Amino acid sequence: MYTNVWYVAGLSEHLADEPVKVTMLGADFVLFRDSDGKANCISNVCPHRGSSLANGTLYKDGTLACPFHGWRFNGSGECTLIPSRRDHEVEVLAPRARTDAYATVEKYGLVWVCLGDDPDAASPIFDMPEWDDHTFRFTVNEEIWEADYHTAKFTNLDYVHLPVVHGILFQGNENPIQAPEHHVTVTDHGFQSVMRVNSTPSEGVWGTLREEGAKVESIMKFFVPGFTLRGQVEIGGIGSGMFNIFYEFTTPIDEHRTMMRHYFLRNYKMEEDFDTEHTRRNLQNVHQDKRLGESQRPKVAADGPNPRGIYTHDEDKIMLTYWGLLEKLRLKGWQLDRKNLKEPDREVRIIPSPARKANPEGWVYDTVALVPAGTPFEKPVSELHFVDIDNVESTRPKDYGQSEPVNPHDPLSNATLEWETAALERVDKAPPFVQSMIIENAEKAAKERGTNFVTVKLLEELQAKQMGGASAGKGPA
Ligand code: FES
Ligand SMILES: [Fe+2]
User: Fold this and answer.
1) Is the N-terminal amide bond of 354 cis, ω within 30° of 0?
2) What gap in Å lies between CA 160 and CA 173, rounded to an integer?
3) Ligand 1, atom nearest to 50 Cα
4) Residue 94 and residue 45 in one domain
5) 343-349: long-range pairs with CB below 8 Å, 24+
6) Which residue among 28, 44, 46, 81 has the greatest number of ligand 1 atoms within 8 angstroms of its CB, and so is best to mutate?
7) Measured torsion, CA atoms of residues 364, 369, 373, 379, in degrees rounded to the nearest 10
8) Do 163 and 287 fall within a single domain?
9) Which among 124, 206, 361, 458 is least surrounded, fewest beta carbons within 10 Å?
10) Residue 361 falls within a domain, yes or no?
11) Tens-binned pLDDT, residue by residue, of the chain (477 aa)
12) CB burial string 197-208: b at 16+ within 10 A, e below
């Protein structure tokens, strides 16, 4: 986890006239609006006796009162009033009463907070050209993953997983699983990868948007601010002007959990009715990634690339580019030192703030341990061994390894048994949040009946059974 990065702390629409507690980088913060409506972010831990400021009261003068003794703090973290002795200046009564405040801005419907003491040095928040472009429609998703944020991010930072996890085959390639040639360009603030490919036409409505065989261009961008991934596919084929775009904003809650927020955008099929279907199709991919990420080990990912890890050919080019960017943040002394982090129950975790940099003395709580500037990863990214097979002659026939799996695994639904096509179509029509439950129940029932085949008949039987129970009504249509 890194300081001096702009993180997405929340959606603007969720920040109204109540303070909101947010945990990021394992530390607690409170967001609140002052009298001008400006969003602020300060440490949530009262410097007096450690109460949670988010449980306090927001006053019309834009100060937040602690729920214990009512000390008031403004958006700059200064204590402005001690009500029990309001006839005295705070500087006289409690000269060290202040809490850490962080640079906060609202952009693109998001509350961005720079968690660190040097916001001017942080990578600037990128442009989102679609935000003011009314030819685009947005839908929004917010969810917590029980996974470290690197692990969460890595479920999208390579191309090979697209066919394997999401069923998006690279048609036209001799080997449709092989990552097509892609060009990665890097800056200090992120990277971009571009490929042109003829991928599998999507099923359902999306399948009608482009002609069979049309090439699509896929542009993946990563921005350090928000650990944001932006994916863009010209869904109708190159030159169609029909874009499917997503932004994935990633905020580490702590070493184990990650807040994932998504904007799904489109400039085709603009009718509101299509929002549900559009979100469902996007979330299908997101949740395939989530299942993966949450089951990967180690649960708390390493602080850097595994020096003994296997990095193949150019398939891991994007992942290593990502580590290269993070290495720069580490060398600046911005990485939290996980090995020296004390248990959160034993210490107050404070992320360094600009006020500390200006005046490091006299704070009630210490800041978290950081890796000293100039400390490389266990093995610098430039020294990681890259297996290069470009010039190695093939020793196997092209169609080697193409046998059918024993238990077909449907990449769209994540079904593990064999399913009657019509049965899968039914599941597809059900609301997204019940789909995995239907699949799980149906496969369990099928196994209980000694079969590996799920039929419409079985779904109907289960639905009829459920209709009599409490959770009926939302089964497949
Ligand atoms: S604990 Fe916050 S004012 Fe006393
Ligand atoms: Fe993915």
Assistant:
1) no
2) 13
3) 1
4) yes
5) 344/26, 344/254, 348/45, 348/50, 349/25, 349/26, 349/27, 349/28
6) 46
7) -170
8) yes
9) 361
10) no
11) 999 999 999 999 999 999 999 999 999 999 999 999 999 999 999 999 999 999 999 999 999 999 999 999 999 999 999 999 999 999 999 889 999 999 999 999 999 999 999 999 999 999 999 999 999 999 999 999 999 999 999 999 999 999 888 888 888 788 889 988 899 999 989 999 998 887 766 556 666 777 777 888 899 999 999 999 999 999 888 888 999 999 999 999 999 999 999 999 999 999 998 898 889 889 989 999 999 999 999 999 888 999 999 998 778 999 999 999 999 999 999 999 988 988 888 899 999 999 999 999 999 999 999 999 999 999 999 998 888 787 888 899 888 888 877 766 665 556 677 778 788 888 888 877 788 788 888 888 888 887 778 889 999 999 888 776 443 333 333
12) bbbbbbeeebee
Distance 377 CA to ligand 1 centre (A): 41
Please identify, among 284, 312, 340, the residue that sits at the C-terminal boundary of a domain.
312
- pTM assigned to the model: 0.86
**CATH (domain of 180):** 3.90.380.10
Number of domains the chain contains: 3
Task: Tell whether 405 is covered by a domain.
Answer: no
Please spell the DSSP secondary structure of 368-411, one letter per residue.
Answer: PPBPPTTPPPSS-GGGS-EE--TTSPP-S-TTTT-PPPSS---T
Give the pair of three-digit tokens for residue 435. 């789909």
Q: Which ligand 1 atom is nearest residue 49's CA? A: 1
Q: Is 81 touching ligand 1 by the criterion CB < 6 Å?
A: no
Residue 263 CB–ligand 1 contact under 6 Å: no
Q: Are residues 148 and 297 in the same domain?
A: yes
Nearest CA to ligand 1 atom 4: 69
Please give the number of the atom of ligand 1 that sits closest to the Cα of 51.
Answer: 1
Instruction: Judge if 150 and 278 occupy the same domain.
Output: yes
Q: Looking at ligand 1, which residue's alpha carbon is closest to its atom 1?
A: 49
Please check whether residues 276 and 149 belong to one and the same domain.
yes
Could you tell me if the CB of 85 is within 6 A of ligand 1?
A: no
Q: Which domain covers residue 28, as residue numbers?
A: 5-115
Q: With a 6 A CB cut-off, is 73 part of the ligand 1 pocket? A: no
